[in-house]
Amino acid sequence: LLETSPGVAEVTFVEKEPAERHTIISWEQKNSCILPEDLKNFYLMTDGFQMTWSVKTDDTPMPLGSMVINSISKLCQLGASSMYTLPNAPTLADLEDDTDEEGNGDKPEKPHFDSRSLIFELDPCNGNGKVCLVYKHAKPGKTEKSEVSHL
Fold it and tell me: In the predicted model, is pLDDT for residue 150 greater than 50?
């Protein structure tokens, strides 16, 4: 669909072999987390995802988009240290906001960016943020419910 869009050029997709079931189980044991069933099934089909595309302006392709899902071996926990590579960049602790801690009404509860949550990087977003797998209520050996968040 993307390739047929007007102005889109140079769509590249990197095909990857499926992850082995024992690799996924090892990741879960190592991180004391149970991967969501849909993400686990994704890794059993392909061990990560990478697609980029450009747009043509004046017949010159210009890089525009990138989508990534890290392989299971690169699905690493983010710590409280800087989540970006730039000096003076924000840390996860900087993102912690004491206001509106709990969900109210129709708003879901925000994830905490400290020891209350476990956060694993799915997509580094070329340094412009991160898409992460977030376990909001981290309890050693019992972390199950998760969601995907953009930081």
Answer: no
